[in-house]
Amino acid sequence: AQSVTQPDIHITVSEGASLELRCNYSYGATPYLFWYVQSPGQGLQLLLKYFSGDTLVQGIKGFEAEFKRSQSSFNLRKPSVHWSDAAEYFCAVGDPGTYKYIFGTGTRLKVLA
Amino acid sequence: DSGVTQTPKHLITATGQRVTLRCSPRSGDLSVYWYQQSLDQGLQFLIQYYNGEERAKGNILERFSAQQFPDLHSELNLSSLELGDSALYFCASSPLAGGQDTQYFGPGTRLTVL
Predict the structure, then answer these.
(1) Which of A34, A62, B24, B66 is buried deepest, with most CB atoms within 10 A?
(2) Mutate which of A100, A102, A105 to test chain B, going by most B C-beta atoms within 10 A?
(3) How far is CA B39 from the centre of its chain?
């Protein structure tokens, strides 16, 4: 069965520090992979997505993610975190066969001034 | 602003009652998705409609039902409500039906069952 794992429930970083949020998935083929961000009281917003091709994808707000097939991972990175990045981040897998999305449990990011 | 609207923003009701949540997708989007977000279950996919037809079903209870109308808006009906149904319900829309589509999320409806 498909699954998405975000091992870190909470992460705290200082403003200006680098960030990496982990995402591992279980899927028979290469799924469609997404990262979404949810600010407090808001809906989810797409940061970036991967379907095929270059394994390093760039997204909005300075985020990037790298697809590593051998590790079944799609980790999200940002070189320098801003206080406004404090939010909850969700990794998701899209199944092209069933049209279903599976979301990870989310990682809540806290940014220290 | 994603372009997806949901009404109402907040809903407070009692156990055993029935409620209807409404979603208007972005202009031109044919697919509508419903999700439930709760503290203990996380973000759970409930159901997807594409151009009026059910396309995919997730962890949706039998007490819950949905439909998509000819004008593409969608309604999620929750009946025989239980305390555990208290959650944030999101609607999302996408242009087509494929798993590669970006989903645009609405602001959600917060349901509280007392």
Answers:
(1) A34
(2) A100
(3) 17
